[in-house]
Design brief:
By secondary structure, the protein is of the alpha/beta class. The protein contains 6 helices and 6 strands, in the order E-H-E-H-H-E-H-E-H-H-E-E. The chain has one domain: Rossmann fold, CATH 3.40.50.
Amino acid sequence: MKFIADECVDLQIIEHLRKKGYEVLYILEINPGVSDDELLSLASKESAVLITLDKDFGELVFRQNILTSGIILLRLSGLDSEDKAIITSEAIEKYQKEIKNNFMVITSDNIRIRKKEVF
């Protein structure tokens, strides 16, 4: 599975996923400062699931009905970077088959997956 990580995502999460064998494009490494629309476009072009901390992507996907390859929203504030990396990695491994084309929210005590209906 291929991911693209928004610039707000901790580097330790990206490194942890890469060590697990996932392909992760980090926007800070390839094109820092891009708009949300450009980031979604890039993720779509790369057929990559977007990992972000930015709740605005839920608005873009559900209210504006923008198609994506999938989004993972991390809501892990208050945890250290290592714990965030472990929780994110474990959630991705556990729910791999359900991530693509859906909207996943990862918190420290819960994982929600909202299926994106295509009209």
